[in-house]
Each structure stands twice: as C-alpha cells, then as structure tokens.
Design brief:
single chain, 396 residues, alpha/beta, Alpha-Beta Plaits, Rossmann fold, 8-stranded mixed sheet, 4-stranded antiparallel sheet, 40% helix
C-alpha cells in the first residue's frame, strides 16, 4: 500500500514576516543549524550533534528547535546537490529550496540526477536501487506511533491529529504537540515506533505464555511490542551489549506497565546469557541502517562498504549463536533495517548451510494480505516507514 505524501510549509513561509524580509528567527535557525553541521562527522552523528547543539543553546523556543532540526536533516537529505554552494548557510538555503521544489513535484528531479546524487556510488553494487526508492528517501519521514493493543482508534481520538492505518494499532501523527509531554505518553498508552519495526513484532506472532528472547533489544521498542502481543504473560529475555540501553528499556517498561521480562548483558560472544530454551528468538541485528536513510540522512554520507562487510560477519555470528537456544519446534526471526544483499540474503544463505535443522517459515506480509514468503522485504516507498528485511525459520 502507498501513502499520501505530506510535507510542512517551507521555512520561509513559517518564519518570514509579512514584509518579505528574512526574520531574526530565520537567521537564528540558520546559525544554530550551521553550528550543528560543522560539528557532525562519522564519529559525531548529526542527531547527537543536534541534541548537544540545542542543549548548549539553552532557552530556544520549541518552534525554533523544530526548524533547526528540520534544517539539519534537510541539509543532509540534499547533500549531494550542494557541492557548488560555498558557505554552510547557502547550502542549507539551497537544500530547503530543493525540498520545497520536490514537495511540489517529486518528478521535477531527473532520474539520472536522482541516481547520481541521492546516495553514495557504492550503494548500487549492494542494493537493488530503483527510482521509487530514491525518491522515497527525499521525503521528510512520518512520525509513527504504536498504541496499546486494540486501542489505536481510541488513541487517535485523544491525540486529535493522528490517523489510524491498516496495521493494527499503528498511527501516523501529523500534529504539532510535544508528544513526550502528553498524559497519554506518560500513561503508557503509546510508544514512538516506526511502522516497519511494528511489523516485525506482528511477524514474530508471539503467544501469551510463551518464552521469547529479544537478542539485540537496545532500548526495548520490540521487547515492549512482544510483551503487548503476549498480553504481558509468559517471559521475554531482553539482552544487549550496552548497559545504558537496558536501563532505558527498564524505564520504558515501567511506564508501559510491562512486567513479563528480564534483562541481561550479552556481548554476542560464545558464552550465552542463559540456558533457557525459547519458543521464539528475535535477532534484530546491528546493521548498516540503510533502511533508515530517509529518517537519518546523515548516515548516507558516513556509512561505508567496509561497514557493510564487517556487519555482515557480525550478523552471521549472532544468528548462529542465538539459534542454539531455540527449542525444538521453536521459531527464529532475523530482522535488519537495511537493504544490502550482504546483510540479508547472504546472511540467510550462510545460516541455512550451517543449520539444516532450521526450515524456512512462511511469513504473511502485514501490508499485502496473501503475500507469503520466508523472506520479506519492506521498502519505504511501499509502506511509508523504514526499509526492513525479515527472514524466519522453524526448528525441526
């Protein structure tokens, strides 16, 4: 299914006074955005530099913060078109102009320019690049919410500017509230979670009372969804190699009133975190994140082919070790928010050669009823969210 694309008004319309002159607020936006861009590099991702930059500029109005964020991400979204502009401010202005032009007519950009300037050249050798995918990368991302199970319509009514979509309890938010300040958020009624990530939970299809392992749980988005689908019954092991992420998971779980989980540090090594045998194991492995390049455009220009190859090796090892704890008849789900062959079909082929006792498990796409496969590709241009690859097996 395809979604109607909507974009906000351009910066000049939102901040320029009626005289037509550039306003003080607009100059402030360019100044702060420029500071962030100058500090961002491979070791300092733009989102982290943005967070630090806004914190350092204490006292900025919320509207200014929003426009600074949009300016920074628009800059990187159109980075390939900006080589001829000499200053950072001119590049930001040019990026905003291109974004507005694209908003009015997505086909105003020639296909050859789109292919040459949207992503680095090495990508064509690793991803099935299409014009539709490249155009999807140039849209501003949607803000996706996941309501508590069965409460999607109720939550949409409460928030007012949220649309209910076909994936159960998935909403796209189109308002301007600070959602983190809403009583619904503090009451645990929803999580911010991309629709592709939500799809992974549904594809896992965990049942109340089962035992699951979320191998690379991170801050717990998928752990919380699995618990919701399990009606807070059974048990979920959530592991990660970084302690602060698990601490964040615990905070989110408390707000969402999730109790059927336990956490443990695991670095992916040969010493497994438990001897438990699981009904289901989800390996949401670290990856190059190419599927998130619409939401995180800075990563387009810092991710390398070497990263892809290195991560492919990590993914193969993680999947092989996690498979050891799948019980007879249990499910193994592999998910990555990337679209490279090295991190998807090549990982699958290596795993199936090493573990013949795992047989491919057919999955039904939550976005295309009747479409079943043991390997699902979720493309941004089709679903309006991150790109994702999911494969599944059942142990004999």
């Amino acid at each position: 299914m395809r979604f109607r694309k909507t974009e906000p008004k351009p910066l000049s319309e939102r901040l320029r006074p009626r005289t037509g002159r550039v306003s003080g607020p607009e100059q402030l936006v360019f100044a702060v955005a420029g500071e962030v861009i100058r500090k961002a590099d491979r070791l300092h991702p733009a989102d982290a530099a943005l967070r630090d930059g806004l914190t350092a500029r204490g006292g900025l109005a919320q509207a200014i913060k929003v426009e600074v964020s949009r300016a920074v991400f628009t800059y990187y979204r159109w980075h390939g078109w900006l080589a001829n502009e000499r200053t950072v401010e001119r590049r930001i202005r040019r990026a905003l102009e291109l974004s507005e032009r694209f908003r009015q007519n997505p086909f105003s950009l020639p296909a050859d320019a789109l292919r040459a300037k949207t992503v680095p050249g090495w990508v064509a050798g690793e991803v099935d690049v299409s014009d539709a995918w490249l155009r999807s990368l140039q849209w501003e991302p949607k803000l996706w919410l996941r309501a508590k199970r069965g409460q999607g319509r109720v939550l949409a009514g409460k928030l007012g500017a949220a649309r209910k979509l076909s994936l159960p309890d998935a909403l796209v938010y189109e308002g301007d509230k600070d959602l983190f300040r809403t009583p619904e958020f503090h009451g645990g009624e929803f999580e911010l979670q991309d629709i592709s990530s939500q799809a992974v939970g549904w594809l896992c299809d965990p049942r109340p009372g089962e035992t699951w392992w979320d191998v690379c749980a991170g801050e717990g988005g998928k752990t919380l969804h699995l618990s919701d689908l399990m009606e807070n019954k059974g048990l979920i092991w959530a592991t990660d190699r970084v302690a602060w992420r698990l601490k964040r998971l615990q905070q989110r779980a408390a707000r969402a009133k999730v109790f059927n989980y336990r956490t443990a540090l695991w670095d992916g090594g040969t010493k497994l975190p438990t001897k438990t045998r699981f009904d289901g194991v989800l390996v949401d492995a670290p990856c190059s994140g190419i599927g998130t390049w619409q939401r995180n455009p800075h990563a387009r220009w810092t991710t390398t082919l070497s990263d892809v190859k290195e991560l492919s090796s990590v993914q193969k090892e993680l999947l092989a070790r996690a498979a050891l704890l799948v019980k007879s008849g249990g499910k193994l789900i592999y998910a990555v928010c990337t679209l490279t062959r090295a991190e998807t079909v090549e990982v699958v082929a290596a795993f199936e050669e090493q573990f013949p006792e795992f047989k491919p498990l057919l999955l039904t796409s939550p976005f295309a009823r009747g479409q079943t496969s043991a390997q699902l590709w979720l493309w941004p241009q089709d679903i309006g969210g991150n790109g994702m690859f999911v494969a599944a097996w059942r142990r004999k």
